[in-house]
Amino acid sequence: MSNPQRLYLMQVAYSPERNIPVVCYLIQTDDGRNILIDTGLPDAFTPPPGLNPVMDKNVLEQLAQIGVQPGEVDTLICTHFDMDHCGHHSAFINAELVIQRDHYVLGQESPRFAANRAEWHRPDARVRLIEGDLELLPGVQILRTDGHTFGHQSVLIHLSESGPVLLTIDAVPTQSLFRANRQPSPVDEDPVAVQASVQKLLDTVEREGVGLTVFGHDGDQWKGLKKLPEYYS
Ligand SMILES: [Zn+2]
Predict the structure, then answer these.
(1) What pLDDT does 223 receive?
(2) What is the C-alpha separation between 145 and 201, in angstroms, rounded?
(3) What is the Å distance from ligand 1's center to 170 Cα?
(4) Domains (ranges, CATH) in the chain?
(5) Ligand 1 centroid to 160 CA: how many Å?
(6) 100-115 pLDDT tens trace
(7) What is the Å distance from ligand 1's center to 68 Cα?
């Protein structure tokens, strides 16, 4: 039986002028599975105006630090296909990609995701298309959180010491935006859906007794979080 044992947080880039980290995550289970959530920026790309991220070790280099080879990752949860979240998907050749069906369809049509399409839209990729929330395994729940984009995903992980940990990803990029009826940000696709997703995550925190909520791009919060090689257990 798989149960989540360790949660690693990786910061793979940082934009000093906007105080924005680019991040991804690894869950290790007690029976040796490696479940990756997002893969950060590609090594080469054209940054959006006003964002000049300083690259840190990429996801492959960070995983190597704890002895994990790309081929040992068996599951890759793709929260969404923005460039800062799927820059190295194609390196994980043995991983099954877990994606909302609606987002997978959108990804093939929308110019927003064109630059990085080759990372996840490959003939050899194993893709599991899901619809809505899913208990991936006991203690790892995928929560559908539309708004930032259609078919966006957040993740809830139950750890033995830390208790429930919520990764909001880009449904809530910073702590200051984690409140009911908040205004959408300019990068959000659907303002109404954003508010519903924020409410869904607020309800999740309440219902599950979440002790740690990790926001997707919160520079102030990330300065104080444990990062690989440290981990939450
Ligand atoms: Zn993002």
Answers:
(1) 98
(2) 8
(3) 5
(4) 4-223 (3.60.15.10)
(5) 28
(6) 999 999 999 999 999 8
(7) 24
